[in-house]
Amino acid sequence: MAERRNAGGAGQGGFRQAQAWLHTWCGLWFSWLLFAVFFTGTLAVFEEPISHWMTPEHHAQEQAQAAACASGQRGGDLGQRLAWGLAYMEKHHPGAEMWELWPSDAEGAGDLRVYWFDEKRQYASAELDSATGQPLDKDQSHGAVRATKGGHHFVDFHYRLHAGQAGLWVVGIAGMAMLVALLSGVITHRRIFKDFFTFRARKGQRSWLDAHNAVAVLTLPFQIMIAYTGIAISASTLMPAGIAVYFGTGSQGLRDYVVALNESDRPAPSGRSMAVPQLEPFVQRAQALMGQPVRAVVVDNPGDAAARIGVYGWNSEEEMQQRLNPTTGMVMFSAATAEVLRLRQPGEVDGGDASMAKSVIGSLHQVEFGGQALKWLYFLCGLAGSAMMASGAILFMVKRRGKHLGRQAGEFGSATARVYRLVEGLNVAAIAGLGLACIGYLWANRLVPVGLSHRASWELAVFFGLWSLALLHALVRAPAAAWREQLGLLAALCLLLPLLNWITVGDSLPAQIARGDWESAGVELSAMAMGLLAAWAWRYLRRRSARSQSPVSAGKMEVGA
Amino acid sequence: MTPFFLRFVGSSVLSRLLAAVLGGYLLASALAVFLATVLSEPRAEAVLAGMLWSFPVYLLAVIWAFSPVSSGRVWLGLLLPSVVLAGASAWLAGGA
């Protein structure tokens, strides 16, 4: 296969051969970025446990809340919470075009939060004390609680690289390239079912090819699904032609499109003023109509006679075991007449089939259904996808080591040796180096001083800083040494994470398990599992380099590294 | 062997790459607009459906652009349907 691939060019040879060329080059040039997107996206499945681990100051508070809830102390009741929220909005944000109250969790306990659109049409929020209704000072905990982006860093990085709209485009293009690589890979590959069961260990290039095929083929439906849904979620940014033609360009066009899609019945302000009525009766009626406890109450045009009150429900975990579409129940009332304008049962969508498809696509990508078991399945499939990209990138080099390097002109002309060197370095930095950046981010969470200003940005700086250092190191050191050293460090940082936590915060893995804090324990155990994997790879490379230095087995270098 | 950059241009990789990336995107956009025009659902729904279908078409266009056909035919095969779809959309939207 290697020979066939290298012989072809763009659109050269037979169809399969041409696709092999496309697979090799499209796969190679995007593999590093895709690996980073995929690996961080895999971690993003467990955004919440990671955030939990990264905010140890909140653990006591969460436990106190759970205990208070269990003993029946849950702050104000629903009517009280709604009244407090309304009073806060009337006093502080009377001119906002939208108020949104999140009175409690599904059990009627938990936090009381309010949201609104500020002057710049940005979402703004405040938290009120659920026992007194007084606004909580956002900065009251400054200096006591570590500021962090937590697990959301991985979410944001995996879909827009912390670079806003530009990052979204880069990731979108990479996602499209992934689909191209997947489809051209399938076309290239004759024996798709046989390779399910094929793995030839310790055969150098063969093993890498088998591994690449096995992880890709076994999880192929997942890989196609996750790439397509990832692109489709951002469709209105990435493929705006239809919106531009029928709703106009720019943010105004997008806004009009979203209104037409979800809220074609949105009333215009009448200009006559009318105070927002007490919300509890609306909420009680809505809960009965949709059969779900209240999650959010949205007031459009508050203070106007044309005000509208939307009540949204909470999905229960059992419900999300039953269906793919995560939309909750919703009841829309006219504030003036209290008449029901619209009723949406849980699992229905406001629009038609396309809206339903969009909703399910979002749920499929973000695994909003199926509970904990499915999250683990996504995590494993995500790791398999990362392994597919990593093994593909490594395979590219393994094939070429020792083959062209000695000749004058390879596939990149006189630059061949330099390009191969660059690819080797990028492989190390993109795979082992990204691992270092991720685990380093968790280390930074424990080591950056708690009171530091812009602390959350410092954690990010450690992530990107470590990654850059890893790239530098990979370009300076010989590839085999760079692999060994970065994998060794990665293993150490992963395996020592529980120790770091114990030393800096005083929380140990046995203590987490004893008190049933499986979110924290899960993060540390998963990190240790990754550490063991890195340690195994490190040991394997060390042994092989020791072997290859002895004169007898030097010939094996060619197939290995 | 010719230097890399000569081979790159000579084998029309650049032409194919541009056809795949830009021509494919144009075709996908034209299809999105066409579906937004002809589907009987409310306009916003039809626009959404068009967007969701456009990505598989983009994918197939890229795959085809790198298949063993001459790059001239690739360009023609991507631009012609784009123009037809866009023209049909304009005609249908104008007539409606």
Could you walk me through the main structural features you see in this protein, from its secondary elements to its overall organization?
The complex is a heterodimer of chains A (561) and B (96). Chain A is built from 22 helices and 7 strands. By secondary structure, chain A is of the alpha+beta class. Chain A has a 7-stranded antiparallel sheet, covered by helices on one side. In chain A, strand 4 (294-300) and strand 5 (308-313) form a beta hairpin. In chain A, helix 2 runs parallel beside helix 17 (416-447). Chain A starts with a helix and ends in a 12-residue tail after the last helix. The model of chain A is unreliable at 1-7 and 551-561 (pLDDT under 50). By secondary structure, chain B is mainly α. Chain B has helices spanning 4-10, 13-38, 43-65, 71-95. In chain B, helix 2 packs antiparallel against helix 3 and helix 2 (13-38) runs parallel beside helix 4 (71-95). The radius of gyration of chain B is 16 Å and the shape is elongated. Chains A and B meet through helix 2, helix 7, helix 9, helix 11 and helix 12 of A and helix 1, helix 2, helix 3 and helix 4 of B.
In short:
Chain A is α+β, with helices and mostly antiparallel strands. Chain A has helices at 2-7, 15-44, 47-54, 57-70, 78-92, 152-160, 164-188, 205-218, 220-233, 235-238, 241-247, 250-262, 280-290, 319-322, 353-366, 371-400, 416-447, 455-476, 479-495, 497-504, 509-514, 518-549, and strands at 98-102, 112-117, 123-128, 294-300, 308-313, 330-334, 340-344.
Write the layout of secondary structure elements.
The complex is a heterodimer of chains A (561) and B (96).
Chain A lengths: L1 H6 L7 H30 L2 H8 L2 H14 L7 H15 L5 E5 L9 E6 L5 E6 L23 H9 L3 H25 L16 H14 L1 H14 L1 H4 L2 H7 L2 H13 L17 H11 L3 E7 L7 E6 L5 H4 L7 E5 L5 E5 L8 H14 L4 H30 L15 H32 L7 H22 L2 H17 L1 H8 L4 H6 L3 H32 L12
Antiparallel strand pairs in A: 1-2, 1-4, 2-3, 4-5, 5-6, 6-7
Chain B lengths: L3 H7 L2 H26 L4 H23 L5 H25 L1
Helix pairs in contact in B: 2-3, 2-4
